[in-house]
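ok posting inputs for the fe (iii) ion job
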Amino acid sequence: TLSSAEIVAKEKSNMTEDRFEHCIGVSKTAQKLAELNHYDEDKAALAGFIHDYAKQVSVEDYREVIKTKGFDQDLLNWNRSIWHGIVGTYFIQRDLKITDSEILTAVRRHTTADVEMTTLDKIVFMADYIEPGRSFPGVEEARKITYANLDKGVGYQLAHTLEFLIEKRDKIYPRTLDAYNVWGIEE
Ligand code: DGI
Ligand code: FE
Ligand code: FE
Ligand code: FE
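and the output
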């Protein structure tokens, strides 16, 4: 395993300064959400810190890894938005030597969410959305909802992400829609 200093150095060298600042914000927010939801704070902080490690990997490298490392070939029809979570775990294991399956699953699910979400998955998914550096219409409401009830935060984000994608006439990853049908529906 790598030391924390080595992980920080690798993370910093693999992304822009802005992206690195975002990862620090997600890490701190994940730690706070872990405390509120009685989850391991150090583990949440680490998962949040590395969640976007592969965000700036090249399209070429992604395509090569998808083709040769046993990933679903349908991923070739998508883009870096979808890849950096699902395929990003390959680079995180390879470069950061992180093997904790709960952390890797949280990274895998951090963009699209999933039908099944563990507490850590929800923490990283929401910390990514509401960290202090985020500013979009609705972020204050998202923060309020998430700090009061993590599951409701997940539903809020999924509903708003779908609205945003449809508004742009962008393609919806089926898992995002499946997740919305579980977490986004108000009874
Ligand atoms: O990596 P970040 O920017 O910090 O945040 P993220 O990993 O949550 O990625 C957010 C982006 O991913 C946002 O622009 C919307 C996009 N996204 C989420 N679900 C889908 C999606 N894009 C497409 N095309 N389809 C999806 O289902
Ligand atoms: Fe991301
Ligand atoms: Fe997200
Ligand atoms: Fe992020």
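notes: The mean pLDDT is 98. The chain has one domain: 4-183.
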